[in-house]
Amino acid sequence: MKIPLGLAKKLLKLSSGERIPKSQLSYSAIQGMIDDDVIKIKITGRSKKHLFVPKPENLHNYIKNHFGINDLAKYVKKLEEGNLTRSENVEIASNSKLTRARTFKGFPVNCYQPIEATLNNKPIVIEPREGLFTFIYDFEQFVPNADVTIIGIENSENFRYVEKQIYLFSDYKPLFVSRYPQSKDLREWLFSISNKYLHFGDFDFQGINIYHNEFKKYLKERSTFFIPGNIEALLKSNGNRVLYDRQLNSRIENITDDGVSNLLSLMHKYKKCLEQEIFVK
After folding, report:
1. Which of 29, 61, 71, 99 has its CA 20 to 30 A from that of 189?
2. CATH code, residues 107-279
3. Is the pTM of this model over 0.70?
4. pLDDT reported for residue 184
């Protein structure tokens, strides 16, 4: 059982000799401590009840035995700081699952040419390797060179075979990032750097929604939706009418991006959508 931060802070005050109105400690755990004489009740005036701890060592032993908390002060401090590692959870509370410590954070990147960057203030080069991705864990300290364009890819096949899509991005020095595993890490990282962002997703209503709601909304003018020059011919010859009909109700309204607006017009013209896997050649 986990003790919430608010209760832990009050218990710490009690252990330091403070008295706290009983009305501020309406937790089931407190009643157990009262029943076991760890916490005492003192009535002042006609009806005011205050709680106090006559022997702090008894409270610490009770918390350790019942909740596995080895050091109440450290427990409070770490919960206030947040982002506990599993080892810290074990140290302060004998419980690696005390908080939802994220075992993995970050995101994978891929490239088809060497990409220079800094990681933890040290220069690195991300090299293309057949069948391998680079996983960026300390993304907060990862900064690609300014001439690098970040290209976000939705689908796994396109991300796996970036070297088969060189013909699409000859005007860029690209570092490809995967939207999966889904978390806020990628977006937070993009927001923290100055590089331009190019979104390469499916040419359908859901793909446009993802771009606008997860990226354009936050990155503003730094983000662009990738649209190849031959998109009309591809929609006409390879588009999917079933996909168009299935997603029509999820279409986004009031598009101000000229490129995306023109894409939507073409999708409505042919009543088709296009999945990005068509570009893997």
Report:
1. 99
2. 3.40.1360
3. no
4. 84
